[in-house]
Amino acid sequence: MRKLCDYIENTWIDSLLWPPKVWSVFMQEVRTTNDVEGWHTHLANHAGLRISSRGLNLYILLEVLNEEAVQVDLYTKMLEQGQSLRRQRKTYRELNEKLFKFWDDYNKQHLTSKELLEKCANIYTHFNAIKYAKTANDARVTEIETE
Q1: CB–CB of 17/6 below 8 Å?
Q2: What kind and span of H or E run contains 97?
Q3: How many beta carbons lie within 10 A of that of residue 106, not counting itself?
Q4: Exposed, middle or buried by CB within 10 Å (0-12, 13-18, 19+), for 71?
Q5: Interval 108-140: pLDDT, tens
Q6: Residue boundaries of the structural domains of the chain
Q7: What is the pLDDT of residues 33-56, one digit of tens each?
Q8: What does pTM read for this prediction?
Q9: How far apart are CA 135 and CA 147, in angstroms?
Q10: How far is CA 12 from each of CA 21, 45, 72, 116, rounded to the nearest angstrom?
Q11: Organism's domain of life (predicted)?
């Protein structure tokens, strides 16, 4: 166990190559690669509509990438005007609000590390129970929906 702890400390905590600020999602609203995966799916679908039986033509790829570049310019202008580009479901927005409150309490030293982890685990447990219970074939569906 000591070797594992030493490895984690040397590789992920004290490392100059990969310090926690590079890989940690602490105080970050976007904590997954879902946004990137969504964009990639959009791009693939957009290009896929124009793929021939011989594959993706270079000119079509360039056209699709040019259209994306135009979108980036539009998004930049929207951001400069203070508009939000991210749509977020109410449940995820509420989850983020709770997480940021816990992180803020932790930064103000109102929570210990253990308390922060417990609170984060509890909200994710509750969130996932609600999210996945709707597809489960058991009594939890009724129980959760009546809360």
Answers
A1: no
A2: helix 90-107
A3: 19
A4: exposed
A5: 999 999 999 999 999 888 887 776 666 555 554
A6: 1-31, 34-80, 88-147
A7: 777 888 888 888 877 766 666 777
A8: 0.55
A9: 17
A10: 10, 37, 34, 20
A11: Eukaryota
